[in-house]
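To the wet lab folks,

You asked to see what we're planning to order before we commit. Fair enough. Below is the target structure as tokens, and below that is the sequence we designed to fit it. If anything looks off to you, flag it before the synthesis order goes out.
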């Protein structure tokens, strides 16, 4: 069970700025993340409660995770969200934020319920707070794209790799984002991929009043 509300907190949270990217994102955006993500670290990936473990488990890429493991990991994610979201709200100075979620790479119908637990968990947490409005279905994928984190291993599947405008061309974005202060959530931010940057700009193009970004993990640069 999740708690009934998200208490306000002024404790620090990891923050950074997503900088403009040529032809993709036109202005800097304030961003936050829970912890560093160390790609390829097997120890962290197999350590419960680590961001590496939470992200990889809830993706359930090969549909091989047990129901009990998925439920437990979903609770770990909920704990992180309940810790971080009030801090983000405090940092933005907004009275409320509408929460959207970056969709997975394939169209929504390609995933079963046990592969959509990241989004489902965000939705369940958001619905228990009066300070966050549920926009988790405001961005939905209708056309497949490459699964970038699986591409090198040959499991990227069909569809295009990231390009400027890919969000608007492969997703349906609800008109309700117009004039809203959006908190856009993803499981993982990687600077060189530009999927998050493209989605942020798509929200601005659709009339969002402001966009703040948050990821559970932020990939540690190897350079």
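Sequence we intend to order:
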């Amino acid at each position: 069970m999740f708690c009934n509300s998200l208490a306000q907190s002024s404790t620090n949270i990891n923050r950074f700025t997503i900088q403009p990217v040529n032809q993709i994102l036109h202005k800097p955006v304030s961003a936050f993340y829970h912890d560093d993500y160390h790609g390829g670290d097997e120890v962290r990936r197999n350590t419960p409660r680590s961001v590496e473990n939470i992200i990889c488990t809830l993706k359930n890429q090969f549909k091989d995770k047990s129901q009990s493991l998925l439920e437990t990991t979903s609770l770990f994610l909920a704990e992180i969200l309940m810790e971080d979201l009030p801090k983000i709200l405090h940092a933005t100075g907004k009275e409320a934020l509408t929460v959207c979620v970056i969709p997975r790479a394939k169209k929504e119908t390609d995933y079963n319920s046990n592969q959509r637990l990241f989004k489902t968990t965000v939705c369940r947490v958001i619905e228990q707070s009066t300070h966050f409005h549920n926009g988790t279905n405001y961005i939905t994928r209708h056309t497949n794209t490459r699964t970038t984190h699986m591409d090198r291993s040959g499991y990227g599947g069909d569809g295009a790799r990231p390009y400027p405008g890919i969000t608007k061309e492969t997703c349906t974005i609800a008109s309700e984002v117009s004039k809203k202060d959006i908190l856009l959530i993803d499981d993982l931010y990687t600077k060189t991929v530009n999927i998050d940057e493209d989605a942020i700009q798509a929200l601005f193009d659709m009339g969002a009043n402001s966009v703040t970004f948050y990821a559970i993990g932020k990939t540690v640069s190897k350079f």
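Structural context that might help your review: The beta strands are 14-18, 29-37, 97-101, 132-134, 139-141, 171-173, 181-189, 210-219. Confidence is low (pLDDT under 50) at residues 1-5.

Thanks,
Computational group
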